[in-house]
Amino acid sequence: MKLTEHTRFSGCGAKLGPGVLDKALCGLSQPAYPGLVADFAGGEDAGVFRLAPGLALVQTVDFFPPIVDDPRLFGRIAAANALSDVYAMGGRPVTALALVCHPLKALGLEPLRAMLEGGLEALVEAGCALLGGHSVEDAEPKLGYAVTGLVDPDRAWRNNTLEPGCALLLTKPLGTGLVNMAVRAGLASPEAVEASQASMATLNRAAAEVLAAFPVKACTDVTGFGLAGHAAEMAAGPRCGVVLHADALPFLPGVAEYAAMGLVPEGTYRNREGRGHVLAGTAPEGLLDLVFDPQTSGGLLAAVPEAAAGDALAALRAAGVTAWAVGEAGGEPGSVRLA
Ligand SMILES: Nc1ncnc2c1ncn2[C@@H]1O[C@H](COP(=O)(O)OP(=O)(O)OP(=O)(O)O)[C@@H](O)[C@H]1O
Ligand SMILES: [Mg+2]
C-alpha cells in the first residue's frame, strides 16, 4: 500500500498558506519575557529563548504528511526538515520529540516502525538525541519532530537582518513540490525523482557548519512558502529588499516542464496569493510557479557580504554541499525582484 495514496497534500505543501497564517497569528500577544529573543511575531524559522548570557534555546516543530512512498525515507526527510529550522538559526540541535499521526487500520504497524527508524537515522546523523514523542490514530499519516537546539543569542542568524552589499547563497536545488506532483501523475522521470529524494533526505548540518565560519548577515531555510516566499521574509527587514537572479536559480531536473504541464501543487497558489504582491509584477508568469513551489526539506538561503561570497561557495562545495549564488540584497525594503 502506497503511503502517499493516503494523503491529499504532501510534505511542506500541506502547510496553511502564509496569508492565512498571518491572519491567524496577528493580534496574538504575550508578555515581554526577559529571556524572549525571537518568537512567532518575527516569522523566524525557530524561536529563541535566552537561558544565560551567551546561551539560548532554539526551538521549532514541523510535521507533515508523506511526500514519498518509502516509509523509511519519509522518516528521514521529516527529521531533516525539522532539524533544518535549527540550522537556519545558526543553532546546534540537541534534543527532539517525535509527533506521529498514524492510520493503524489502513497501514498497519510496519510502516510506522520504518518511518521512525528513518527519522532516528537522521537525528543520529545530527547528533540530536530523541527523547520521546506523542502518537495518535488519524485518518492520514503525518510525521514530524519538535527539535530543541542551542545557540549564542547574540550570534543567532535571523531572517530579517539583511544588509546592503550581501550576496544570497542557496544550498539545495528547487522544485521538490513540482517533482512530487509529477510523481503523483506518473509523469516524473527517474532522474528527477532520484535527485529530489536525495536532496530532501540531506541534512543542512554541513551547510550550516561551513557557513558558521563566515559573517552570515541573515539566514532562513527554503521550505513551504517557496524561494520567493522565504526571500520575502528576508526582504521584510528595514534596510533593503531582495533581488533574485532568474538565470542563476538551480532547479531539479524536469521541473520547468512539469510547471508548464500544470503539475503545480496547491501550496504554490496559496503562496502566490499570500506573498505574490512582494514581487510587484517583476516575475514572468512562467517563473512564478517555480519560485513559489513549496519545498520540503529545502536548502539554506544565507546572506553573506559580497567579498566573502566566493570563499563561502568554495568552502560549501569543498564540504560536499551543493551551493549557488542566487541573488543579492537590493531594492526597497519589503520588495523581492526577479532580475
Ligand atoms: N499555530 C501557531 N502558533 C504560533 N506560531 C505559529 C503557528 N504556526 C506557525 N507559527 C509561526 O509562524 C512562523 C512561520 O511558520 P512556518 O511553519 O511557516 O515556518 P517554518 O517552520 O520556518 O517553515 P516550514 O514549516 O515550511 O519549514 C514561525 O515563526 C512559526 O513559529
Ligand atoms: Mg513550520
TrEMBL record:
The enzyme class is transferase
Chain ranges of the PurM-like N-terminal domain? 43-151
Keyword annotations for this protein, in alphabetical order, are: ATP-binding, Kinase, Magnesium, Metal-binding, Nucleotide-binding, Selenium, Transferase
Which residues does the annotation say bind ATP? K15, G42, G43, E44, D62, D85, G133, H134, S135
Cofactors needed by this protein, per the record, are: Mg(2+)
Annotated active site: C12
- Where in this chain does the record put each PurM-like C-terminal domain? 163-334
Q: How is the cofactor bound?
A: Binds 1 Mg(2+) ion per monomer.
Report the record's Gene Ontology biological process terms.
Answer: selenocysteine biosynthetic process
Task: Site (Important for catalytic activity): give the residues.
Answer: K15
Q: Which residues bind Mg(2+)?
A: D45, D85, D221
Subunit text: Homodimer.
> Which HAMAP family does the record associate with it?
SelD
Give the protein name, as stated in the record: Selenide, water dikinase
Source species: Mesoterricola sediminis
Q: What is the lineage of its organism?
A: Bacteria, Pseudomonadati, Acidobacteriota, Holophagae, Holophagales
Q: Which gene encodes it?
A: selD
